[in-house]
Request: fold
Amino acid sequence: MGNYVSPKILGATIIGFALVAGAYVTSNFGQPHEPVKTATATQVVEPAPERIQLAITDTDQNGVEDWRDAFVDNEAVVIKSAPHASYTPPTTVTGQTTINFMEDIITARMHASPITPSDDDIIARNVAALDRVAEIKLYDTTDISIMEEWSEEDVVNYANTVAATVIRNDVNGLDSEMQILYDITRRGQSERISELEAIRGAYQGFRDETLLIPVPKELAKAHLDLINTYQALYEDLDAMIASIDDPLLGLVHIKRYDDDALGLVMAVHNLYDALLPYASLFTAEDPALLFAAFTQEFPLNNQ
Reply:
């Protein structure tokens, strides 16, 4: 058969192709023909800002363009040192103790050795220094006028004068010193400082006026004890007032305040005992009866 193609097969193929082509033409017949559009990308480009050219001028002929001179400070830079301030060491006990303590600690750390004081030793040394701060001035026989010779009337006059000094300088109607100090430091009632000042003034009056009273020699010891307890309590009150700015000083004196107050009671009682041999010389109107308030008996009253 070779390359021979059957006429029937060829005819069927031609007829089939004609039918497909006719169907396509029929389906698209009468439709408007639109050209194929090709998509293109569109980008809006802003115009570049206009550039301003700087004038290249050097008016002062210093080698730097004028526009650069605007950023250059031609003034010489002078660094002024801070005014010299001299160091003023603290005058309060709190400030001095703090500095001394820190110096001792730093020195011990820098020179550590077997003989370097321990922290406990440093604390003990600073506490001892505080005790010395609380030492008060003590009056002795050179500060008072002692009567080498005296009479019984001198004894009565002396006792009544000492008692009258207390009555004259006393302040009544105030709370105790410790209550006032508590209100000042813990409740912020700083206006009560004036009350502490009034009590301090009372002890100052007790002390100063009693120092001027001539005392029979036999009573000199009791007289000095009384004056020194006045002095101790005056110092305590002074430190309490100062504790607002110097708390450590106030604390030291507060610790000894109870002992000083007890010392005053004992001093008055001792003076009372020294006057007992002269009890018959006193009457109920004598100011010296004040001393009897420190005992359970009232033998100075001979009525």
About this structure: The chain has nine helices and two strands. The radius of gyration is 55 Å. Residues 141-294 form one domain.
